[in-house]
Amino acid sequence: MTLFQVIILAILQGITEFIPVSSSGHLVVIPKFLNWPSPPLIFDIAVHFGTLIAVCLFLKKEIKEIISKERKLIELLIIATIPAGIIGWFFGSEIEKFFSSPGWVAYFWIIGALFMLISEKAKTRKWLNEIKISDSFLIGIAQAAAIFPGISRSGVTIAAGRLLKIKRPAAAIFSFLMLIPVILGTLIWQANKLNSLSIDWLSLFIGFLISAISGYLALKFLLIYLKKGTLNIFAYYCIFLALITLILS
Description:
This protein is mainly alpha-helical.
């Protein structure tokens, strides 16, 4: 990978990990159509670690409160992580085949977009401290669907929260808190698959740093936007990108 490719892919990872348009979908389709080499696994680990640092820094206040006061939220986050863990553990190898097909990514983009559009019809009233165990498990099932490339994890989890009557900003914060154990699990799973290889440490550091910075800025933008904005604009973007992908592939 060239330095230019490293920078572009790291920016994409950082932004689309949180903006509800699917980071995995972008990282499958864009290298394919630009004839770029597939990013090595070690690079994927580096940029995911960057987004993990971004969300931990951005939500440091909420994380401190959870550890010191909101123990119930820890239980809810564990419950919400279970479905994705089960799907990833038992079906992860089978799902990997979808990452080589832009056509499948396009279909999943459309599915995720429709789910976001439907969720915008819901009337919401709940805040973060009103989320129930049943809510967290159902949001966790939505998160498990995002294992497929093209289905935005943040998009479907925020949408699921809205369908459960949780207000957008609260659903977004819960979604981002859910991301922490998911990324940790992903990093462990990917690290176990690493073989001995020569490592370009400079590219890895640049990828990590850029994904962390762009991820932090994306988080800040999205939470401000969701105070008044809807998920519709992201859903329409996903549908547009899916149609372009289907035409090109």
